[in-house]
UniProtKB/TrEMBL annotation:
It is found in: Membrane. It is a multi-pass membrane protein. Belongs to the KRTCAP2 family. This is Dolichyl-diphosphooligosaccharide--protein glycosyltransferase subunit KCP2. It holds the Pfam family Keratin_assoc. InterPro entries: KRTCAP2. GO terms for cellular component: membrane. Signal peptide: none annotated. Keywords: Membrane, Transmembrane, Transmembrane helix. The keyword Transmembrane applies.
């Protein structure tokens, strides 16, 4: 069951704020070891996903349904902002954030192009 575009925008914005504040709150712990630095980059890639979702929902609210995010303005801005947030933790986190964000963007694009509406398809067929 999906939510409306306005609700999705609010939830994605709330998740952006929570992820960014968690990155800043635990900055010292996240930059202390190699593993935590990698985790910080992965968490920052979720910031990218949430920002892209919020921005696309805002555009759908403003410009109407069917408006899609494009690579240059929307994706690039969200990627740069997420990498900057990762860079506030550690330099290595930027690279991990970039790689995980590109991988996440690939799978989001794959899901969107397959035309899945998020509804489960039943495997059983009814006979007449």
């Amino acid at each position: 069951m999906g939510v409306t575009t306005t609700t999705s925008f609010g939830l994605a914005t709330l998740c952006c704020v929570l992820v960014f504040s968690a990155l800043q709150l635990y900055k010292n712990q996240l930059s202390s070891t190699r593993l935590m630095t990698l985790i910080a980059g992965y968490v920052a890639s979720w910031l990218f996903i949430f920002m892209l979702t919020a921005l696309n929902n805002l555009e759908n609210i403003m410009f109407g349904k069917g408006f899609q995010a494009h690579i240059l303005p929307e994706v690039a801005i969200c990627l740069i902002l997420a990498c900057c947030a990762a860079g506030m933790v550690h330099r290595v986190s930027v690279t991990v954030c970039l790689l995980c964000s590109i991988l996440g963007l690939y799978y989001i694009n794959k899901m969107a192009s397959s035309g899945s509406s998020g509804q489960a398809v039943s495997g059983s067929k009814k006979r007449k």
